[in-house]
């Protein structure tokens, strides 16, 4: 005879583990390489750094596409980190869900803003 001790479900996440760990490291490495690339362009630029030179760095389509790809990598990096923090430290499921929804809306808004900034140059 089996005994049912209750079936209270514990909401803890999907245990993404290695995939999220790897995504965090890959996105961090991509952001670091991009930072070095932009820093190199700034240092190799002669004269004072004004708006024209700064906009010139990001004016080519390949740089805009690369920058947007890095912004997407950063958004993924932020999402994984914030989701993990909330899963670890925010126990009420409703509060955690509200924070996750807020983060998704915020990150999508940031992506839209990045598109506007990059393609307005």
Secondary structure: elements and pairs:
Elements: H1 18-44, H2 51-57, H3 61-89, H4 93-120
Give a brief description.
The protein is mainly alpha-helical and 121 residues long.
Describe the structure.
The protein has 121 residues and is mainly α. The protein has a single domain (18-120), classed as Fumarate reductase/succinate dehydrogenase, transmembrane subunit (3 helical TM bundles of succinate and fumarate reductases, Up-down Bundle), CATH 1.20.1300.10. The protein has helices at 18-44, 51-57, 61-89, 93-120. The radius of gyration is 21 Å and the shape is elongated. The N and C termini lie far apart (72 Å).
How many individual helices? 4
Number of domain modules: 1
Q: What structural class results from the helix and strand content?
A: mainly alpha
Proportion of beta-strand residues:
under 5%
Radius of gyration: 21 Å
- In CATH, the architecture is Up-down Bundle
Task: Give the uncertain stretches in residue-range form.
Answer: none
The total count of strands amounts to 0
Distance between the termini: 72 Å
Mean pLDDT: 88
Task: Kindly identify the CATH topology.
Answer: 3 helical TM bundles of succinate and fumarate reductases
The shape is elongated
- The portion of residues assigned to helices is over 70%
Secondary-structure element string: HHHH
Largest sheet: none
């Amino acid at each position: 005879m089996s005994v049912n001790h209750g079936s209270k479900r514990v909401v803890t996440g999907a245990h993404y583990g290695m995939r999220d760990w790897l995504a965090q490291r890959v996105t961090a490495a991509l952001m670091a390489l991009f930072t070095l690339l932009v820093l190199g362009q700034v240092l190799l630029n002669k004269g004072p750094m004004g708006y024209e030179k700064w906009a010139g760095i990001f004016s080519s389509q390949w740089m805009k596409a690369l920058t947007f790809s890095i912004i997407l990598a950063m958004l993924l990096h932020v999402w994984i980190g914030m989701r993990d923090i909330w899963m670890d430290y925010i126990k009420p499921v409703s509060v955690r869900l509200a924070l996750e929804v807020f983060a998704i809306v915020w990150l999508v808004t940031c992506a839209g803003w990045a598109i506007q900034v990059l393609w307005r140059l």
